[in-house]
TrEMBL record:
Gene3D superfamilies: 3.40.50.2020. It catalyses: GMP + diphosphate = guanine + 5-phospho-alpha-D-ribose 1-diphosphate; IMP + diphosphate = hypoxanthine + 5-phospho-alpha-D-ribose 1-diphosphate. It is an enzyme of class 2 (transferase). It comes from Nitrincola iocasae. GO terms for biological process: GMP salvage; guanine salvage; hypoxanthine metabolic process; IMP salvage. This is Hypoxanthine-guanine phosphoribosyltransferase. Its EC number is 2.4.2.8. InterPro entries: HGPRT, PRTase-like, PRTase_dom. Keywords: Glycosyltransferase, Transferase. It comes from the Bacteria. The keyword Transcription regulation does not apply. Residues 23-169 form the Phosphoribosyltransferase domain. GO terms for molecular function: guanine phosphoribosyltransferase activity; hypoxanthine phosphoribosyltransferase activity; magnesium ion binding. One of its GO terms (cellular component) is cytosol.
Amino acid sequence: MTQVELDEIKQIYQEADLLFSSEQVDQAINHMAEAISASLSEQNPVVFCVMNGGLVITGQLLTRLNFPLEASYLHATRYRNTTSGHSLEWKVPPMSAFRGRPVLIVDDILDEGHTLVEIMDHCRREGASAVYAAVLIDKRHDRKAQPGLKAEFTGLEIEDRYIFGYGMDYKGYWRNAPGIFAVKGL
Ligand SMILES: O=P(O)(O)OC[C@H]1O[C@H](OP(=O)(O)OP(=O)(O)O)[C@H](O)[C@@H]1O
Ligand code: HPA
């Protein structure tokens, strides 16, 4: 990346609107962990992180889930470091065995929801006994893949803007941003 483009990346961060601070996100993750524990602590689930965006929320959730589970990952992408979605590309399907067991899919954001619907359908077809989804962010708009689509566990709802931080990227950058930020003008 040239210096000019890196300057744009820095400017995006400086001009962004902070929607939720890291303290607010922390609290939301605590609530998610409580709800997940109440539902799944006796179920021996397999927890799949959806790479790349699910990296931060999965890590932060896992240390709050104090019960037996197996943690693994899958890699599917739809936005490919741009700000609009395309068809889902599977880079790594779920590799850990889960037939006959409940599966929890953890991702950063449910935007239009095509990603989660496709991943959850795949896990059902491959024999999961139940499939749950946990997302840090649910974006409010009427473009969901299915009307009324919701994850079983949701951290925070946001307005219809392009956001980054806590695993979510702007052109591949700022997954490491310590809060939920909205890009100026998007
Ligand atoms: O609800 P949807 O409209 O389908 O979008 C949500 C998906 O988009 C992002 O992934 P992306 O394809 O950008 O890949 P990434 O995880 O590598 O950022 C995000 O991490 C979700 O997986
Ligand atoms: O608003 C978003 N930000 C980052 N990644 C995303 N993937 C879907 N929607 C978004």
